[in-house]
Structures are given as structure tokens and as C-alpha cells.
Amino acid sequence: MSVSFRILGSSSSGNCALLQTAHTKVLLDAGFSAKRIEQMLESIGESIDSIDAVFLTHEHGDHAQGLRGLAKRSDLPVYANRDTADAVQAKYCRKRVNWQHFQTGTAFPFRDLRVRSFRLPHDAFDPVGFTFSWGEEGDLFARPGSLAWITDLGYVPAHVREHIREVDTLVIEANYDEELLERDERRPWSIKQRIRGRHGHLSNSATYEALEAILPQSRLQKVYLGHLSKDCNNVALVQEKFAGLGDKLSVEVVDPEIGTSPAMLKQAI
User: Is this structure's pTM higher than 0.85?
Assistant: First the structure.
């Protein structure tokens, strides 16, 4: 079974990725306008009409604004917990979204995917991360693999570390460089405190320290570092910070302006 993954875009301005298995294509978040998401998909030979579902982490615009336009597809299921769905419906959508509610912390199937949600420490109504897994041990045609989508969080609590340990591929934020944030003159002190807080975002150092602690007892093979701030971080700084992990696993920094090239996940998955 061929499974591919591509981050269409990831930064403080917008986040969206495409996960494709033999039997389904799903978007992880919809943090760009619907028109922009359609253009991104068309640029890689895909169509919004081929998307089977959207999985939504929380209601902030850089993860959810695309629902304003995507809601016109009444047959497109959008998976979110109830608090997130209510917030997005009220803020962005005139048309009723085809909401598929789940309870945070539960697991459920979607076609050939097994999905698990878990709470993240972030300043939203009920923000979540997801793990997606597929395939079966011993099946030559559907070999197992897994991915975690963990974007916005102020720190990495124990239960999140456990979810990371269980997957092959991880997407996690490296949002800001501490010195660049401190020197930034456009953000008031209150915003800086929010970003640095336990319900804000992860700095480069915080993400590095978490991964360094998790790696020895994990099955991680690939890490994507995303959600970079365009003002308080850059690709070169993140690459330099995480160079020391390169001999332990594959690390890719997601350029805020580009996204990633297609990746075949875990064997000819």
C-alpha cells in the first residue's frame, strides 16, 4: 500500500497538509483560504473534489480559515471536537459545515486510517493533536505506518510525549527563536508573553529538548519542523539548532514559503 504525505504550507500564517493512502485523501487543517488550498492541490496534480475529509486541530485562523469556502462542499466531512466546530462555525462559516464530532482523547476509524485525538496545551477552546496509523503487521500489501500532527502547543506534556514515541513520522512546531522574539519591536510585551507561555508556542530550544528526551525510547524515523514564525524564526536557524539530531533520524525544516515535496512514508507506504 502506497501512503504519501505532503505539507502544503506551514507557518504562523497558515497550515495545511495532505495525507494520502490507497483508499483515502485527507487534509490536516485548513489554514489558508479555500481558493489558496485549491491552488495548492492543483499545483501537485490533486483536486479539492478528491479530498475525502478534513481533520481540524483548533479554531485559529491559521488552521481553520479555509472552512469559510470549503463549506460549500456539503458532502465534505470535517472532523473536529464540538467546541472547535462551534467556534469555527460561528466565526467563519455562513453555510453549515458537515461536522463530524469526536470527543477529545478518543480513537476512531476513517476508511483505512485509524485516528486518535489528544489534548494540547494551547490558548484555544479545545485544541488537539492527531495520530494517524494504517496497515497491519505481517501484511505485505498493507504494511504499518503512523504519523503525528502536532502544531500549536506551549510545552510538551507527558501524554503528548507518549503519542510521539508511538509514531514513525512526526510534524511538530519550532515556532520561534528566543532572541529574535525578544528583539522583535512589532509585538507588545503581552503578546510575547502569550507566545512564550505554557499555552502558547514551542521555541526552537523547547522542541529540540523535547525531541532529545523522547528519541531514545521512540520509533521515530522522520521529523518535520513546521509552523515557523516568519518574523521571529527562519529555516537556517532551525537547521542549525537541530543539526545534532541528524545522525539519529531524518529532520526536515518546512520552509514557510514553500511547504514540502511529496514523501513516501515508511517503506512503499
Answer: yes
Contact status, residue 51 vs residue 76, Cβ threshold 8 Å: yes
The C-alpha atoms of residue 77 and residue 257 are separated, in whole angstroms, by: 28
User: pLDDT tens across 174-206, in order?
Assistant: 999 999 999 999 999 999 999 999 999 999 999
**Under a CB-based contact definition with an 8 Å cutoff, are residues 21 and 112 in contact?**
yes
61 three-state secondary structure:
helix
Find out whether 62 and 12 touch, Cβ atoms under 8 Å: yes
- Residue 65, φ and ψ in degrees, nearest 5: -60, -25
Among residues 33, 28, 38, 37, the alpha carbon closest in space to that of 58 is found at 28
> What gap in Å lies between CA 15 and CA 151, rounded to an integer?
9
Q: Residue 220 and residue 212: Cα distance in Å, rounded?
A: 11
Phi, psi for residue 128 in degrees, rounded to 5:
-135, 160
Beta bridge partners of 149: 130, 171
Q: How far apart are the first and last CA of the chain?
A: 5
CATH number of 4-264: 3.60.15.10
Select from 71, 64, 66, 104 the least CA-distant residue to 88.
64
Q: Which uninterrupted H or E stretch holds 146? A: strand 145-150
